[in-house]
């Protein structure tokens, strides 16, 4: 139990160090779009594995009798049916994310949020953690590979510092890292404009992965 | 009734430059505060605020300089309401469609995200249009009130000139009658002519100086009447049948000065004729609460009303004109000449007048 908690915390720390975090998802309800080709097992250049499965498929397998599904679960199903459960494993450390693909002007993005916390629900540290959303740009590259580039906190800090950005946020923690508190509509509009903006190295990120598919989709 | 329109046209001090400078400067400050959410404004806030102001200025100026003058001021209220709402929704919708696109085009590297949603924009536009309409109406009311006060001041000055003119007619008229009395005493070489001159001097002091105010007390006015009656006795030796009966509740009751004297002058001038035994003047003055009445009766040997005489007609005519100006509809003045008795009755109600004021 303790081991899993530490793994998840390390994983969270890894993901939260330099990426933009938000209370609200980066997508709007009408922008999500399920991408069949993303499902499957992937490996990145650091030998970490990414097991991507359809949330809908998992949910329906676990809830074959629809009449026994609670209203709360039905709502969650409707909300996340286009999404994926992504199991990220590196050095035998495993964490699960809920991810939602969405498009902005034909560009694919994925919204990530840590998902599986049940095992550490009584842990004092975990109770101080806030699950936040992050967003990554997904690009298909040669040989069926995927590039995943997280929106970097440094880019937004530059915009804030230059008084070019009006987006609601709060700073938290001793490090005063910021967490976006804007609505999903505002976040989506921001990404939409950010895509078109003439900003040098706007997708330069400390969290960039190149994924190669290892097998057919499950 | 004076026509106010020429004054309004002449004195409408609306300065579009000043009005709009103040309006948009204040709007800028308020919006900047709102858009920066109470924080210290940053560059992007200034850009957004100025852009937003330009967007909202178009429907506001259309409302101020087309819809209000063409419809509201011409009392076309239904059309005004329709035009106002159409103007609001049209430009709010245009704003929602075009504003962000323009901003993105003009400022591609600025991200105006956490300001207001489209639903909030219609609220801001509504507030702007309603408040500027009220502001314009307030400004118009301010100038209208200012102009109306000028018109009223002019009217008041005109009335004062009229009253002054009427009073200046009373004084020489009274002096003319009084000099006739002195002249008669001089012809008769009466010893008490000196006393008569002194008494006339006292009367004239009151007439010329003390009565030169808007209102005098009833007490002072009655003193004048008593002095005048005594003075007249010099003229008509042996005539003592003058009865002055007063029932006064408040001696400080205010009336317009020199209002009653011409009536008594009139009675002395036309009533003291024929046998002294048959000659009489009865004066009754009553005052209670806000009501004042004056009644004078004298014997009359003339067929018609006393005021048909040219000289006495001047005094009565002055009384009527003064009453009309000072007491408007709050008085009655009746004269009658029947059975050789001439009667003049004046009643004044000051309560109605104060209510109307």
CATH architecture classification of the largest domain in chain B: 2-Layer Sandwich
Broad shape of chain A: globular
Largest sheet of chain A: 8 strands, antiparallel, barrel
**CATH class type of the largest domain in chain B:** Alpha Beta
Q: List unreliable stretches of 5+ residues of chain A.
A: 5-16
Q: Provide the spatial order of strands within the biggest beta sheet of chain B.
A: 3-5-6-8-7
List keywords for this structure.
heterodimer; A: 218 residues; alpha+beta; 12 strands; globular; B: 357 residues; Heat Shock Protein 90; 2 domains; two-stranded antiparallel ribbon; 10 helices
What report would you give on this structure?
Chain A has one domain (2-213). Chain A has 5 helices and 12 strands. Chain A has helices at 2-16, 55-62, 71-80, 153-161, 184-196; strands at residues 21-22, 40-44, 49-54, 84-90, 93-104, 107-114, 134-140, 146-150, 165-166, 169-172, 177-180, 208-213. Chain A is globular, with a radius of gyration of 17 Å. Mean pLDDT of chain A is 83; it is low at 5-16. With 357 residues, chain B is α+β, with helices and mostly antiparallel strands. Chain B is 64% helix and 13% strand. Chain B is rod-shaped, with a radius of gyration of 36 Å. The interface between A and B is medium-sized, with 19 and 15 residues. β9 (165-166) of chain A pairs parallel with β1 (111-112) of chain B.
A few lines on this structure:
The complex is a heterodimer of chains A (218) and B (357). Chain A is of the alpha+beta class. Chain A has helices at residues 2-16, 55-62, 71-80, 153-161, 184-196, and strands spanning 21-22, 40-44, 49-54, 84-90, 93-104, 107-114, 134-140, 146-150, 165-166, 169-172, 177-180, 208-213.
Strands, helices and their partners?
The complex is a heterodimer of chains A (218) and B (357).
Chain A: H1 2-16, E1 21-22, E2 40-44, E3 49-54, H2 55-62, H3 71-80, E4 84-90, E5 93-104, E6 107-114, E7 134-140, E8 146-150, H4 153-161, E9 165-166, E10 169-172, E11 177-180, H5 184-196, E12 208-213
Parallel strand pairs in A: 1-11
Antiparallel strand pairs in A: 2-3, 2-12, 3-4, 4-5, 5-6, 6-7, 7-8, 8-12, 10-11
Chain B: H1 5-11, H2 16-35, H3 43-72, H4 77-106, E1 111-112, H5 118-187, H6 193-210, E2 216-217, H7 218-235, E3 242-248, E4 254-255, H8 261-271, E5 281-288, E6 291-299, H9 310-327, E7 331-338, E8 341-349, H10 350-356
Helix pairs in contact in B: 2-3, 3-4, 3-5, 4-5, 5-6, 5-9, 6-7, 8-9
């Amino acid at each position: 139990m303790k081991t899993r908690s530490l793994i998840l915390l390390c994983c969270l720390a890894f993901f939260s160090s330099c990426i933009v975090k938000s209370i609200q998802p980066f997508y709007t309800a009408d922008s999500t779009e399920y991408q069949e080709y993303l499902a499957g097992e992937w490996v990145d250049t650091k030998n970490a594995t990414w097991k991507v499965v359809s949330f809908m498929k998992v949910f329906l397998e676990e809830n074959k009798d629809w009449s026994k599904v609670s209203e709360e679960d039905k709502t969650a199903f409707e909300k996340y049916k286009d999404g994926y459960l992504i199991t990220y494993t590196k050095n035998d450390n495993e964490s699960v994310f809920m991810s939602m693909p969405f498009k902005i002007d034909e560009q694919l993005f994925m919204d990530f949020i840590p998902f599986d916390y049940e095992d550490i629900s009584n842990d004092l540290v975990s109770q101080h953690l806030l699950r936040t959303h992050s967003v990554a740009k997904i690009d298909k590259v040669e040989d069926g590979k995927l590039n995943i580039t997280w929106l970097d906190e440094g880019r937004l800090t530059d915009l804030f510092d230059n008084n070019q950005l009006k987006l609601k946020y709060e700073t938290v923690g001793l490090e005063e890292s910021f967490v976006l508190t804007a609505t999903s509509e505002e976040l989506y509009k921001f990404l939409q404009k950010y895509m078109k903006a003439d900003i040098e190295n706007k997708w330069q990120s400390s969290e960039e992965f190149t994924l190669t598919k290892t097998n057919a989709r499950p | 009734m004076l026509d106010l329109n020429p004054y309004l046209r002449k004195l409408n001090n609306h300065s579009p430059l000043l009005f709009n400078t103040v309006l948009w400067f204040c709007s800028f400050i308020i919006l900047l505060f709102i858009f920066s959410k109470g924080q210290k404004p940053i560059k992007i806030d200034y850009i957004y605020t100025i852009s937003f102001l330009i967007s909202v200025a178009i429907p506001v100026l259309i409302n101020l300089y087309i819809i209000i003058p063409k419809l509201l001021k011409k009392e076309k209220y239904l059309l005004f309401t329709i035009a106002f709402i159409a103007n609001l929704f049209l430009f709010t919708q245009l704003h929602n469609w075009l504003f962000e696109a323009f901003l993105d085009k003009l400022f591609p590297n600025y991200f105006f995200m956490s300001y207001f949603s489209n639903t909030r924009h219609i609220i801001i536009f509504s507030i702007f249009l309603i408040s500027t309409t009220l502001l314009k109406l307030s400004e118009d009311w301010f100038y209208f009130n200012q102009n109306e006060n000028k018109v009223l001041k002019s009217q008041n000055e005109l009335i004062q000139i009229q009253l002054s003119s009427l009073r200046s007619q009373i004084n020489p008229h009274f002096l003319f009658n009084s000099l006739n009395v002195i002249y008669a005493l001089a012809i008769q070489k009466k010893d008490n002519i000196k006393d008569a001159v002194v008494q006339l001097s006292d009367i004239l002091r009151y007439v010329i100086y003390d009565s030169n105010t808007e209102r005098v007390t009833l007490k002072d006015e009655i003193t004048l009447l008593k002095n005048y009656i005594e003075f007249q006795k010099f003229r008509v030796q042996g005539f003592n049948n003058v009865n002055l009966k007063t029932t006064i509740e408040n001696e400080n009751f205010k009336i317009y000065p020199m209002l009653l004297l011409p009536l008594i002058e009139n009675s002395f001038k036309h009533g003291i004729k024929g046998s002294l035994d048959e000659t009489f003047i009865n004066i009754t003055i009553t005052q209670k609460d806000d009501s004042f009445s004056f009644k004078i009766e004298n014997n009359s040997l003339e067929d018609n009303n006393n005021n048909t005489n040219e000289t006495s007609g001047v005094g009565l005519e002055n009384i009527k004109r003064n009453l009309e100006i000072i007491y408007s509809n709050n008085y009655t003045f009746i004269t009658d000449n029947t059975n050789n008795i001439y009667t003049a009755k004046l009643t004044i109600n000051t309560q109605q007048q104060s209510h109307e004021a």
